[in-house]
Specification:
This protein is an alpha+beta fold and 145 residues long. It folds into two domains: 1-30; 33-144, 3-Layer(aba) Sandwich (Glutaredoxin), CATH 3.40.30. Helix content is 43%, strand content 19%. It is built from four helices and five strands. It has helices spanning 3-28, 67-80, 95-100, 128-144; strands spanning 32-33, 54-60, 84-90, 108-113, 118-123. A five-stranded mixed sheet has the order 1-5-4-2-3. A hairpin with a 4-residue loop joins β4 and β5. The N and C termini lie far apart (66 Å).
Length: 145
């Protein structure tokens, strides 16, 4: 193989790798709506109750560098909405919870409706706007039921 062919092959591999990485990053920050099949027990998470309208459930670890920023964002969103609670569960010493909720990375955020049913899942960091849109959807659908 001559030098120019090797450069073309390397450039093609680089382009494919960057494309796959960009796609995975784009997928990661999108909300995934889940089929309601489980009601989350707040006592298992170390909380007394869930929110009256919704709960923003964040899974973090001690070594997560992005978790404090997500914690501030979710806390601010909960403070701005009546009946919405933000719970932050540290998974560092709770692998049972990580396994149960299939948490493969932190932060991971779940939006629960007023009954504690998981409605939406965000893997990684997400924008305030995306969380507020999903929160509005969950609380609006809840009000119409």
């Amino acid at each position: 193989m001559n030098l120019s062919s090797a450069i073309v092959v390397l450039a093609a591999l680089l382009a494919v790798t960057v494309g796959i990485g960009a796609f995975l990053r784009w997928q990661q920050n999108r909300p995934r709506r889940l089929s309601p099949s489980e009601v989350v027990d707040p006592l298992r998470l170390g909380a007394e109750t869930l929110g009256e309208r919704a709960t923003l459930l964040q899974f973090s670890t001690e070594m997560c560098s992005r978790c404090p920023g997500v914690h501030r964002t979710l806390g601010a969103i909960a403070d701005d909405h009546d009946g919405v609670v933000h719970l932050d569960v540290d998974l560092t010493h709770r692998p049972d919870i990580a396994k149960h909720f299939h948490v493969l990375q932190t932060p991971t955020t779940l939006i629960l409706d007023r009954d504690g049913v998981i409605q939406t899942r965000f893997a990684g960091t997400t924008s305030r706007h995306a969380v507020e849109l999903e929160l509005a959807r969950v609380t609006t659908e809840d009000a119409h039921v």
